[in-house]
Amino acid sequence: MKQASLNIVGITLKPNSTPEFYNILPNLCSWLLRRKRQIIFNIDDKDRVLKFFKSKNVDHLEFWDTKSFHKNVDLMLSLGGDGTLIGVCRRINSKIPVLGINLGRLGFITEFNKNEYIDRLSAILDGKYQVTTKPLFHISVLKKNKTHFKDYFFNDAVLAKNDIARMIYIRAELGTEHVYNISGDGIIISTPLGSTAYSMAAGGPIVHPDVKGLVLTPICPHSLIHRPFVVPDSAPISIKILPPHHSMTLTLDGQVGLNVDDQDVVMINTAKVKKVLLIKNPDRSYFETIREKFIFAKRD
């Protein structure tokens, strides 16, 4: 189905600069300018973006504050790897379609590689594209029944020990039901899209991204019966930190970290309104990606 034309194009860059940007960015921006598109970068990237253009004219580039950048563009291009795209997904306005362009190695959820996206971009700018809608998950940390932290995650939330040779003790609940108590190195709460990341490496299942659920994957559990669970996302998940106290960290998508204490409670729910619109690559399928990236270990 044809969408509205996309005239204001935001460009997000991966945090670590790459020599590829010296060619990709000037060429991409010249291409967009010829099609009379407005080109927007985050103000935080201004200094390094200008370096990529060297002595070229940059009057056509605009730099917006972070809030406007993630709220008011018509299309967001994510130039990097899966981590760059995940960071965009946590911050972007839910109505803005996101095009993931892989400049990294694996690129599992970035739909387009650096050699093919430009062939599709003209049609996308004219509104000829399809999206897949994915929810974000809301997470909050309660201390003495008061919320002292809240955020979203797209891939996974990980609660893990900090101390060497120390186990941590947690209680997992789904709604009002007790799932299990775990002693070990921690637990991974993964979305279906995130099931092929840390959760899979820790022994969790691969879950098709259309499944509406979450995966609870214990990290090095001290019991053979504590196995990964796929649970529905219709009920809240609570992870309670049990004594004795040991240092623990809650990490969201490998990008946001928070220290947690015993007697803290981590609550996870499907976000009511927060979602992501990912532009689909019509030449790519999920199982093809599984075969390419994992079975044959083929990298771009």
Please count the beta strands (DSSP E, at least 2 residues each).
18
By CATH reckoning, the class of the largest domain would read Alpha Beta
Q: Characterize the biggest β-sheet.
A: 12 strands, mixed
| Helix-strand makeup class | alpha/beta
What's the topology here?
Elements: E1 8-13, H1 21-34, E2 38-42, H2 46-53, E3 61-64, H3 66-69, E4 75-80, H4 82-91, E5 97-102, E6 112-113, H5 117-125, E7 131-143, E8 146-153, E9 156-161, E10 168-174, E11 177-184, E12 186-190, H6 198-201, E13 213-219, E14 229-232, E15 237-242, E16 248-252, E17 256-260, E18 265-279, H7 286-295
Parallel strand pairs: 1-2, 1-4, 2-3, 4-5, 5-6, 5-18
Antiparallel strand pairs: 7-8, 7-18, 9-12, 9-16, 10-11, 10-15, 12-13, 13-14, 15-18, 16-17
Helix pairs in contact: 1-2
What report would you give on this structure?
- Strands 1, 2, 3, 4, 5, 6, 7, 8, 10, 11, 15 and 18 form a twelve-stranded mixed sheet that branches.
- The protein folds into two domains: 8-130 and 280-295, 3-Layer(aba) Sandwich (Rossmann fold); 137-272, Tumour Suppressor Smad4 (Sandwich), CATH 2.60.200.
- The chain is an alpha/beta fold and 300 residues long.
- The longest helix has 14 residues, at 21-34.
- The chain is elongated, with a radius of gyration of 21 Å.
- The model has no long low-confidence stretch (mean pLDDT 90).
- It has helices spanning 21-34, 46-53, 66-69, 82-91, 117-125, 198-201, 286-295; strands at 8-13, 38-42, 61-64, 75-80, 97-102, 112-113, 131-143, 146-153, 156-161, 168-174, 177-184, 186-190, 213-219, 229-232, 237-242, 248-252, 256-260, 265-279.
